[in-house]
Design goal:
Shape: globular
Helix content: under 10%
Number of strands: 38
Number of helices: 4
Low-confidence stretches: 1-32, 523-585
């Protein structure tokens, strides 16, 4: 989980009494959650590398970004500046490969990219293990000068993982755009079926998995309908012809329990809310939310499952888009609240589940704000005064988002249920310039995101390693961070000031203690004690209880007074104690 320095009314300092650590109250002051800092300058200059699709696979975060030549290629990061680099020049020319649809599968990254390596120019299926040698074309699906995928990609239909394969839409140049599957090998990358026979395309999209069934939208030549498959080659079936002789206009396929919810048009009531259990009989309209015939549609959007309640936005009978919910029944499908009372729409967006509640943005009539809802009228309210929130991301119990405030522009905010909303970081872009944070992801329990600054342009940022005690910035919290803290004690090094107080003190030691043992995967767990060698000296990694008393200091002290140090009883073996003192003396 993301460890946060929680806002509190008092800071604390430590003093050694016997073998315990006593906590004493210090002055009241407000503490922000943590800094975010730029990870690396992938493309120096004000334009930046414009990273996209931050995707974590084990101990590596992949993304696409522009290099110094301005070409978009595949990059990786281990969470440190030195470990952030371009993997491979996939398109060997002055052009870019534009990697997209980055998808983790079986510990590897699969994606589509424009290539001229080993095949005619076109977008094909690639894989990467994070090394140049391990980044290669999986299969040349489209034989000829075209590509298996749109170039540039125009239909953002993510790959869908089900059991031992992942599924995607592709064109082999013979059968049009159909459903394909891959187990990651050339031989295991095959077309599932030819829904629209011949060279015509089924235009497969909206791939959605429920258990061992893949649902998707496809056109067999008579209009788009709901289809299903278990992945068996040659086996796919239309679930129901919702609009005979026409296009059912399906969208927003969303699982909830064993049922699939979506919007569709039966040609009679317009585009309304539907559900399916995978059978023709069990595929029904839930409710005609906006009555009035085929030209009066509710257009349900952003279907979101929150603990068995389906939230969505829809146009009501008055023509306004508001927040709705459904339990799958006609009577249980209702408007949650008239957020923007009157003739205007609240237009809720970015519906996001966190901790059993729904978070979203909406226009309350004065401005667009962040809202929280428990599904009731009374329990649906704005929770922060900042305006124009966007890019909502729920990560381990904290909601991160971009929002605008006077004098600061659009910056990073956070909200934790039960706590007061607060700015989660410093003003990333100075003064009123907006950093517009987005693409927030969780990498090993730490926050990574994309933001823009005037000097560096758009780059990847990360939660400051100091905020979780990684003062050596080496992907793990261990004895080397203690050494960094010791060397900076009493100073103002931002790299070791974990609580952002302006001085390196005992509070920063407490942050290190609380996070001791953290490591980004796939690094092994830290040793449990004893001298080790790192080639650079000072590599002893002590267990918490082995920290020498001379280094448990209070704020403002350069060392622990001798009377306090002498009060420590140390039952540990002499050799462990001596090694600790020898390394840290």
């Amino acid at each position: 989980m993301i460890r946060r320095s929680r806002p509190r009314s008092t800071y604390q300092r430590s003093a050694v009494i016997g073998r315990t650590l006593r906590i004493e109250s210090l002055e009241t002051r407000r503490m922000l959650a943590f800094d975010v800092i730029q990870l690396a300058d992938a493309r120096p200059g004000p334009a930046g590398s414009a990273p996209q699709e931050l995707t974590v696979v084990g101990g590596t975060m992949f993304f696409s970004a522009e290099n110094v030549a301005g070409n978009r290629e595949l990059w990786k990061s281990d969470g440190t500046p030195s470990g952030t680099l371009q993997i491979e020049e996939i398109f060997y020319s002055e052009h870019a490969s534009y990697p997209s649809q980055l998808t983790p599968f079986n510990g590897l990254l699969y994606f589509q990219a424009h290539t001229n390596s080993g095949s005619p120019i076109g977008r094909e299926l690639w894989r990467s293990d994070g090394t140049a040698a391990g980044t290669f074309l999986v299969k040349n699906i489209y034989f000829g000068s075209g590509g298996a995928f749109d170039a540039p990609p125009t239909t953002r239909t993510p790959f869908a993982v089900m059991n031992d394969a992942f599924y995607f839409r592709a064109n082999d140049g013979v059968h049009g755009v159909e459903l394909w599957r891959s187990n990651g090998t050339e031989a295991g990358t095959t077309r599932v079926t030819d829904i629209n026979p011949g060279d015509a395309s089924a235009n497969v999209r909206d791939l959605t998995v429920i258990g061992n069934t893949l649902y998707f939208v496809a056109d067999n030549g008579a209009g788009s309908q709901l289809w299903r498959t278990d992945g068996t080659p040659g086996v796919a079936a239309m679930v129901k012809d919702i609009r005979p002789g026409g296009d059912a206009e399906l969208a927003y396929l969303t699982p909830m329990g064993d049922a699939l919810y979506f919007r569709a048009n039966d040609g009679i009531t317009g585009i309304e809310l539907w559900k399916s259990d995978g059978t023709a009989e069990g595929t029904v309209r839930v409710k005609d939310i906006r009555p009035g015939g085929p030209t009066s549609s509710a257009f349900p959007n952003e279907l979101t499952n929150v603990n068995g309640t389906l939230f969505f936005t829809a146009i009501d009978a008055g023509g306004n888009r508001e927040l709705h919910k459904s339990d799958g029944t006609t009577l249980g499908t209702i408007k949650v609240k008239e957020i923007n009372a009157g003739l205007a729409s609240a237009d809720p967006k970015e519906l996001t589940e966190m901790g059993g509640a729904l978070y979203f943005t909406a226009n309350d009539g004065a401005a667009r704000r962040l809202f929280r809802s428990d599904g009731s009228d009374a329990g649906t309210a704005s929770i922060v005064a900042a305006t124009n929130p966007a890019s909502l991301a729920a990560l381990n119990g904290t909601l991160f988002f971009a929002a605008e405030s006077p004098g600061a522009g659009v910056e990073l905010w956070s909200y934790t249920a039960g706590a007061a909303p607060l700015v989660a970081t410093q003003n990333i872009a100075a003064d009123a310039t907006s950093s517009s944070p987005r693409e927030m992801v969780d990498f090993a329990g730490r926050l990574f995101l994309v933001a823009t600054t005037p000097g560096s342009g758009t780059e990847v940022f990360r939660q400051s390693p100091a905020s979780y005690g990684n003062y050596a910035d080496d992907r793990r919290v261990d004895g080397m961070d203690f050494v960094a803290w010791q060397r900076s004690l009493g100073g103002a090094s931002t790299a070791v000031d974990g609580d952002r107080s302006g001085v390196v003190d005992a509070n920063d030691l407490n942050i290190w203690r609380a996070n001791f043992g953290f490591a980004f995967p796939p690094l092994p767990d830290p040793p449990t004690g004893g001298p080790t060698s790192s080639g650079g000296g000072l590599a002893y990694i002590p267990p918490i209880s082995f920290i020498p008393a001379t280094h448990l200091v209070a704020a403002g002290e350069s060392s622990v007074p001798s009377d306090r140090a002498a009060a420590i009883a140390r039952p540990e073996p002499d050799e462990v104690r001596d090694a600790a003192f020898a390394q840290f003396a």
